[in-house]
Amino acid sequence: MGGESTTHTAPSGTGAAQIGSPLGQRLSGVAVALGLVLFLGGFAWGAVVYRPYTVPTSSMTPTIDAGDRVLAERVDGGEIRRGDVVVFRDKTWVTNADVVKRVVAVGGDTVACCSDGKLAVNGEQIEEPYLPKGDFAEMSDFPTVKVPEGRLFLLGDERHGSLDSTAHLTDAARGTVARSAVSARVDAVAWPMKGMLKPPTGFEALGALSQPGPLRLVVVLIVVGAALVLGGAAYGPVAKRLGRSRTRPEPAGVH
After folding, report:
1. Which of 5, 21, 101, 183 is flagged as catalytic?
2. Which one of 28, 59, 162, 210 is the catalytic residue?
3. Who contacts 138 (Cβ-Cβ below 8 Å, separation ≥6)?
4. In this predicted model, what pLDDT tens digit does every residue of 228-238 receive, in sequence order?
5. pLDDT tens digits for 56-65?
6. To the nearest 5 percent, what fractions of the chain are helix, strand and coil?
7. What is the pTM of this model?
8. Does the annotation mark 59 as catalytic?
9. Is 21 helix (H, G, I), strand (E, B) or coil?
10. Of the candidates 54, 63, 57, which has an alpha carbon nearest to the alpha carbon of residue 157?
């Protein structure tokens, strides 16, 4: 018969049903699996270690504003140190509600205010850069308080309107709170995204500070896991697109 003109594409070499190389497919599968482990593991770890809490008042401004969402590490009250921002419950302060304040003195400390506008703990003037700029440690002096063992003395960073230990000096415990009342230590403001709280370096002269919890590592696991899942899942579509772009029509032939 007469010559018949036909046009067909060159074979891909790996078969039409196969997308990408076998090695690439295996690696993408491993990436997705590993990414899921890291992503879900990070979330699970964070859920076990941290608790979210919405701060209802402005007593911790500017560190934490009213309505901010914080992440607080679940800790035992015995682990709390000077400068920590903690979540606690004390029915003499508020009934059936959590309170967020900063620990400025622990059992055995003496705390007084004010010396040159600064808080004094065990006779040491404390630098408190987290206070609102230009504010004194207190609007008025309060008498020296000896903190009993096993208890804490707490203040809000917004000292002018904070109902903290200074508002409870006439109570039987002289404004102090039991360590056992503490349920968590605030590590970061999650929303709006202010990030990790700055270390309270003004208390370093009195003893070691608390170390941040594993929040940064938890975030890294989640981000890396998400990147691996997305990258592994994208391999197939990308390989398919590249395979199509490399396909070229053969010139018409006579058979």
Report:
1. 101
2. 59
3. 113, 114, 119, 159, 166
4. 999 888 877 87
5. 999 999 999 9
6. 30, 25, 45
7. 0.83
8. yes
9. coil
10. 63
